[in-house]
Every structure is written in structure tokens, then in C-alpha cells.
Design brief:
mainly alpha; Growth Hormone, Chain: A
Length: 481
């Protein structure tokens, strides 16, 4: 088997396991709440801790891979991830589990930040879309099958098994990476090798505080001092980060990358796509289980329509992109996603399930058409010594889009369902089915509208430089890479 295919198999296997980790723990939160006798707003940190850490350090992890070797960083990530899974299963209280999840997330960030870069380096440019389309399909499958796998494990075993059963898989991913992936080519020997620590710290502060504010906005109140304080701190950290990056010799993110239209538009469109797509994972269980009285297993099978479409069609979409190079394939894809989300806003309690699945299939088809050429455009827009940064940008944009979409969908669902029912319940599941249905429909409508804004962004794709005014002012001098 050619090296490029061995490399793709190794990265896809690891990517699936890493992305599944984001969602597999969610289904265990009620169980953890009972086991540790803690309220939901405390237990949720078992999943929030991972999201904050991964989002905050992924871009830095990508730069570390650029500087010190992507294979080395990728395997290190899998070692940390696997050790973290093993010790998390021994947690005696929720505080220990949260701490172990923080540690585990460092490994996830190191791995996913460099996955696309490793694949990009292994494949020639005319096959890159197909390869990245495959990894994109695996990401979607991992995010959406995590709750299914977690539910099955909890039915057969206990919450400890969610971590322990994945340790052998982590060891396998580590072994495959060691055997199948070659060390990355050395970057320019004259380039500085020193990691930008101040930039890494301010970037982590910017992204993690912003994500925490978005994630907790509904629970704490969007105008609460905590949320406003976090957003203000994030804005100050962002300003400091931009100033630092404009002056250091080897920045975490070269601000010059944002002058490249295909990079800037690709990252922005990706975030908007996942903002809309994440609403499917969050809203459909409420519709199927609370309105339609489906079991957890049946719900998982229905939602699996989206990743199934992605698994089947993303490699084909990438192959078409490689061969024909349609300029607006990404625009077509995000438009189809928006149509699918808007069609989900029309579901009723009695809508035949086959028609519900058809709507989900539209979302999956659109995502497949969009993801492959968009990822290829991002990875192809940067120099080789910045592939890790570009790969990390894809993962970070996905995380930000997911977090923002979940926060938006949950806020709308609670507000509309409570208003429709005429009272506010302590749990959304205590509201009547018709009120929940109204909330789900409205949330899908807003998600579809939000996702459709990416149509405009994606249609601006090209090679002429664009850059936001604030970054233009900060990055007057060429980046010193």
C-alpha cells in the first residue's frame, strides 16, 4: 500500500477517536450527576473543560508541529490522550474527573491540530481534496456517533467504561501513527525555532474566555457580570495577542495569512457551517425523544443519517473538486446545508420519519459538498512551513462554530418553548411536547438563517487579498516567518 494511503488511514482512525471524545461524554452527564451527587451546572465541566482546553491551545499546537515536527507532536498527543483516558476512569470525585479531562484535552489538541497537515503533506495537490474530504467525513462521523457509542456503553457497563474501553483504541492509534506516518519535512533552517509563548498565552485567554462566555451565556444570563466580564477580558486579550503577533519573529499565527482570501474566507465559512450543523446534534434528540417518543437507540439511528451521507459523499466531493476545480462548489454546499436546516424548521409532530431523515440527508449532502474543497483551499493557501497552523485553524474554527451553534440553539429552544408553554420549567424536558416542538422549529429556522450567511462569505472566495481593518492596522509590516 502506498504511503499516502497508510498515512490517511492512520490519521482518520485517530481523528475519529479524538472528535468522538467531544460528544461521547455528554450522554454520561446525568449519570455523573447521580454518581457524584453534583448539580448539572457542575457536572457539565466534565465536557466543558475539554472544549475550553482544545479550543484554547489547538492553534498553538499546530505551530508547535510546524516548528518541532508534526509526527512527533501528533504521537505525543496520543500518548497524553491515552494516559488521560486511563486515569480519568479512576476519578473519585467530579473535581478529579474535570482535572483529568483538562489533561486529556491537551493530547486531543496536539493530535487534531496536526492531522490535516500530515495528510496534506502526504498527498499531491491534485488529490488533496479527496483526502481531506475523507478526514472531514470522519470528523462528522466522530462528532455524531459519540452519543450513540456512549449510550451503548452506559447501558452495558458504567461510566468508568467510557474511558477504560477506549484505552486500547488509543494505544492502537498511537501504534498506527508510529508505523504509518513519516516525519515531516524540515522547514526553512534559517527560520526561528522559538515558540511564541506570550502569543500562545494571550491566544488561549482570548479563545477560552470567549468560548466559556458563549457556552454559559444561557445559564448565567447574557447580561450577567460573569458573561460580560469574560467577553471584555477576551476582547482585551485579543488586542494584546494581535499586538504581540505583529512584532515577534515566529508568531503563533502569521497575521499575513488573513490577507489571503482563500484562507480567511475558508476559515470563516467553516465556522458558520458548523454553527448551523451543530444544531442538528443538539435539537434532534429533543424532537425525537420528547415530541415523537423515540428511544435513545432509535434517535441515534435517525441522526446517523447526516454522518452516513458525509462518509459516503465527502471523498467523492473531494475527487470532483480535485478534478474539475469548481470555484463555487463550497458555496453550493453551504447553500444546500442552509436549505436542509430551513426544511427542518417545518417538521411537525406527525411528519413521517422518512421525510425527517430526508431533511437530515440534505444537511449531510450539503456538508459533504462543502467540506472537501473548503479544507483543501485552506490547506493549499499556506506555505509548507505553516501547514500545522492551517490544520489547527480548521479544528479551531470547527470548535468555535460548534460551541456557538450549541449556545444559540439551546438559548432559542428554552426561550421559545417556555414562552409557548406559558411557564419556565427547571428542565426543558418538563415542558409539553407541543412547546418543545415550537422551540425546535424556531431554533432550526435561526440556524438555517445563520448558516446561510456563509453563502455570501464563500462566494467571495478568490486569490485577491482581503483583511479586516483592525488586522490591517496591526500587521503593517510583513510577517517574519
Amino acid at each position: 500500500m502506498e504511503y499516502k494511503w497508510r498515512c490517511l488511514i492512520a490519521v482518520c482512525f485517530g481523528t475519529y477517536m479524538a472528535t468522538m471524545d467531544f460528544s461521547i461524554i455528554n450522554v454520561a452527564l446525568p449519570t455523573l450527576s447521580r454518581e457524584f451527587d453534583k448539580p448539572p451546572d457542575i457536572v457539565v465541566w466534565a465536557t466543558l473543560a475539554s472544549s475550553l482546553m482544545v479550543t484554547g491551545i489547538t492553534l498553538t499546537a499546530g505551530r508547535v508541529g510546524d516548528l518541532y515536527g508534526r509526527k512527533r507532536v501528533y504521537i505525543t498527543g496520543w500518548i497524553i490522550f491515552t494516559v488521560g483516558m486511563g486515569i480519568a476512569g479512576f476519578a473519585q470525585n467530579i473535581e478529579q474527573l474535570i482535572a483529568f479531562r483538562f489533561f486529556q484535552a491537551i493530547g486531543i489538541a496536539l493530535a487534531i491540530a496536526n492531522g490535516n497537515a500530515i495528510v496534506t503533506e502526504a498527498f499531491p495537490a491534485n488529490e488533496r481534496g479527496q483526502a481531506l474530504g475523507t478526514t472531514g467525513a470522519v470528523v462528522g462521523a466522530g462528532l455524531m456517533t459519540g452519543p450513540i457509542a456512549g449510550g451503548i456503553i452506559l447501558e452495558v457497563f458504567n461510566w468508568h467504561a467510557i474511558f477504560w474501553l477506549r484505552v486500547p483504541i488509543g494505544l492502537l492509534a498511537m501504534t498506527m501513527a508510529f508505523l504509518f506516518i513519516r516525519p515531516s519535512e524540515a522547514s526553512d533552517s534559517n527560520a526561528p525555532k522559538k515558540l511564541d509563548i506570550p502569543g500562545a498565552v494571550t491566544l488561549f485567554a482570548t479563545l477560552s474566555t470567549a468560548l466559556l462566555a458563549v457556552n454559559r451565556g444561557t445559564s448565567w444570563g447574557w447580561t450577567s457580570p460573569q458573561v460580560l466580564g469574560l467577553l471584555g477580558f477576551s476582547a482585551c486579550s485579543l488586542t494584546a495577542f494581535l499586538l504581540i503577533e505583529s512584532k515577534v519573529a515566529s508568531p503563533v499565527i502569521s497575521l499575513a495569512l488573513f490577507k489571503v482570501r482563500s484562507y480567511a474566507v475558508g476559515v470563516g465559512s467553516l465556522s458558520l457551517n458548523f454553527l448551523g450543523q451543530s444544531s442538528v446534534t443538539f435539537l434532534m434528540p429533543f424532537y425525537l425523544e420528547q415530541v415523537r417518543d423515540f428511544s435513545t437507540g432509535q434517535t441515534g439511528l435517525v441522526i446517523a443519517t447526516v454522518p452516513l451521507m458525509m462518509l459516503i459523499l465527502s471523498p467523492i466531493s473531494g475527487r470532483i473538486s480535485d478534478r474539475y476545480g469548481f470555484v463555487h462548489q463550497t458555496t453550493l454546499g453551504i447553500a444546500i446545508v442552509s436549505v436542509g436546516l430551513l426544511s427542518l424548521a417545518t417538521i411537525q409532530a406527525e411528519t413521517p420519519i422518512i421525510l425527517v431523515m430526508a431533511r437530515l440527508a440534505i444537511v449531510g449532502i450539503g456538508t459533504s459538498i462543502f467540506m472537501s474543497p473548503n479544507s483543501a483551499a485552506i490547506m493549499g493557501s499556506v506555505p509548507r512551513d505553516r501547514l500545522g497552523t492551517a490544520s489547527a485553524s480548521v479544528a479551531t474554527a470547527r470548535n468555535i462554530g460548534n460551541a456557538s451553534g450549541l449556545a444559540m440553539a439551546s438559548a432559542i429552544l428554552v426561550a421559545v418553548a417556555s414562552s409557548s408553554a406559558g411557564f419556565t420549567a427547571s428542565r426543558i424536558t418538563d415542558l409539553p411536547p407541543d412547546a418543545i416542538l415550537q422551540g425546535v422549529r424556531t431554533a432550526f429556522l435561526v440556524a438555517g438563517i445563520a448558516s446561510s450567511t456563509a453563502i455570501i462569505a464563500s462566494s467571495l472566495r478568490g486569490k485577491q487579498p482581503i483583511i479586516a481593518p483592525i488586522i490591517t492596522q496591526v500587521a503593517q509590516a510583513p510577517a517574519q516567518d
